[in-house]
Design a protein that fits this description.
The chain is an alpha+beta fold. It has helices at about 5-15, 45-60, 90-100, 100-105, 110-115, and strands at about 20-25, 35-40, 70, 75-80, 85-90. The protein contains 5 helices and 5 strands, in the order αββαβββααα. About 45% of the residues lie in helices and about 25% in strands.
Length: about 120
């Protein structure tokens, strides 16, 4: 499966499960760990878990099994690593705190400055 097809599959699964605020970030020029990050919000811990599980299941059915799935026990932030596509499903409060879209939109110097400001 081509990477763009996998990205589209992920978005379709998340839309079918009523995940909200779905954003696709092209990170090919920022990192070597993935081509795309897909970030979506779930309304509860159960919604986050079921959305991430559905992404993992549907990608496996399409011949692209996940390399790993994290965060299903807690349900605040679940991550599904599909190699070229990394999927983050978060509750709104967690998404607002980490602001991944803003972080990945920054250049390296701005990201380092923000990290220092937050004391990390």
């Amino acid at each position: 499966m081509e990477i763009d097809e996998l990205r589209d599959l992920v978005v379709n699964v998340l839309e079918d499960l009523k995940a909200t605020d779905i954003v696709v970030l092209d990170v090919r020029d920022k990192t070597s760990i993935a081509d795309y990050f897909v970030i979506a919000s779930g309304t509860s811990d159960r919604h986050v878990k079921s959305s991430a599980e559905a992404v993992a299941f549907q990608s496996k059915q399409a011949g692209e099994p996940p390399l790993g799935v994290e965060g299903l026990n807690e349900g605040e932030w679940a991550l599904v690593d599909l190699n070229g596509v990394v999927v983050h499903v978060m509750q709104a409060k967690v998404r607002d705190f980490y602001q991944l879209e803003k972080l990945w939109a920054m250049d390296a110097a701005a990201a380092e400055k923000l990290s220092r400001e937050r004391g990390q």
